[in-house]
């Protein structure tokens, strides 16, 4: 457990375990690094596992500025640079995938060994020429208003949509505790930005080896999103998790961990 001070003075909390080539797990919108709790004991045996809470999320400082994907990617660049990390694997889940792609767009892949993309679209928005998008303006507006007026109630209904099976009460409780650490003002601001970024035109330039991990039993992001990424990314492999929804790293932990491990060791 440690804290990193970014250039604008914001404090970033992160977990740092193990030794070896670094793998950075990047969580989704409103979430935190705790969602990767099942990855730490496995990967720390052969890798240096780094799990930051993104700006404003989890145990990081709840600073009210800088909540765009572009700025999160800049925070990630500072994180890698200040810690002197080399030969890095970036593992982005949900919104974390956007942070990974924005990092590659801004800074290239010269220091990146591989990327792991978990259950995300090239864009979350349902553009006129992108009908597999998750949100249209009406849904996005509704979500933003709910976050402002009924954050805990909204998340109590949203979080179960990330899982195939019904969550146990104690599981939902810790997830709600993590996601409600994020102030409503930040939650709605970053939701808008992450919902309208669009990386479709950039994918062909991302040549770093990429493993795409998608849950088959998806309630939020269709498997078609993974198939689209497989077609557009020049150096990608797609793995479907048959018994998972949005969180294969929690729903099929052993398969996820070994699949990622085998992919990285095969490079």
Automatic annotation (TrEMBL):
- All copies of domain AB hydrolase-1, residue ranges: 22-132
Could you list this entry's UniProt keywords, alphabetically sorted: Hydrolase
- For the keyword Hydrolase, the answer is yes
Pfam family, any one: Abhydrolase_1
Highest taxon of the source? Bacteria
* InterPro entries assigned to the protein according to its UniProt record, in alphabetical order: AB_hydrolase_1 (IPR000073), AB_hydrolase_fold (IPR029058), AB_hydrolase_sf (IPR050266)
Q: Which Gene3D superfamilies match?
A: alpha/beta hydrolase (3.40.50.1820)
Listed SUPFAM superfamilies: alpha/beta-Hydrolases (SSF53474)
Protein's name in the database: Pimeloyl-ACP methyl ester carboxylesterase
Record the organism. Answer: Cytobacillus purgationiresistens
Lineage of the organism: Bacteria, Bacillati, Bacillota, Bacilli, Bacillales
